[in-house]
Amino acid sequence: MEQLKLDYYFKDMGSFAFKEIFKDCIYPWEVLSNINEYINKFMSNKEMKINKATEIGEFCSISGNYFIDEGTKIHPNVTIQGPVIIGKNVEIQSGALIRPGTIIGDNCSVGHSSEVKHAILQNKSKVASLAFVGDSILGRSARIGSGTILANRRFDQKNITIKIDGEKIDTGLDFFGSIVGDNTRLGANVASLPGAFIGPYTWILPTLQVRGFIPAEKRIFPKTEYKITDNEKVELK
């Protein structure tokens, strides 16, 4: 079970402004279960809807309770649905959708037309364009490539389980995406199945489908075979 504990994936939570959400949690799914409670407590201390952003583009929609810290830039046509907490110097690019229960740390970015839902992005993590990050936790400086999907629900809608050393662990959650360790990279068009645990400093190369537990400091390659045949010369219109 050591491979499922928080400290296997995240080594530098101390600089995360919202690190209290990890307090007393051993496993990542416990943190995901605490998100709404943490945000409600954070926002109960003050009248929220605080916006210190240095730039908000045209045609943005920001609703519900939210806290947006200084230096953050929100490009045009962004939708933010509170409750949401966004740290300092964050960039949210055009067309992005930030859904309820999202906590974004400092110096992060969310790319064009990407969607983030009920997730934690620790400092310096980045989500590129056209990606989906649902019910997941990204470590410090983690990178999610363009078109990558962190799937968060089984077809049969049963609880998400993870198998380690032959033992199947029930997380108790029917919505659970991926745990992505510090400085891990997921290339373009990667798809992770619900309940994927990816260790720190691991690179998942583009187009792969990943599931289950992937250890730290690994590089995962796709195995691709091509069939090449002759092609007729055709002048296209």
SSE string: HHEEEEEEEEEEEEEEEEEEEEEEEEEEEE
Structural class: mainly beta
Q: How many domain units? A: 1
* Secondary structure tally, helices: 2
CATH architecture name: 3 Solenoid
Summarize this, please?
By secondary structure, the protein is mainly β.
Describe this structure in words.
The protein is mainly β and 237 residues long. The chain has one domain (2-220): Hexapeptide repeat proteins (UDP N-Acetylglucosamine Acyltransferase, domain 1, 3 Solenoid). It is 9% helix and 29% strand. The chain is built from two helices and 28 strands. It has helices at 6-9, 28-44; strands at residues 50-51, 55-56, 61-63, 66-68, 73-74, 79-81, 84-86, 91-92, 97-98, 102-104, 109-110, 115-117, 120-121, 126-127, 132-134, 137-138, 143-144, 149-150, 161-164, 167-170, 178-180, 185-186, 191-192, 196-198, 203-204, 209-210, 213-214, 219-220. A nine-stranded parallel beta sheet has the order 1-4-7-10-13-16-21-24-27, with helices on one face. It has a nine-stranded parallel beta sheet with strand order 2-5-8-11-14-17-22-25-28, with no helix packed on it. Strands 3-6-9-12-15-18-23-26 form an eight-stranded parallel beta sheet, with no helix packed on it. The radius of gyration is 19 Å and the shape is globular. The mean pLDDT is 94.
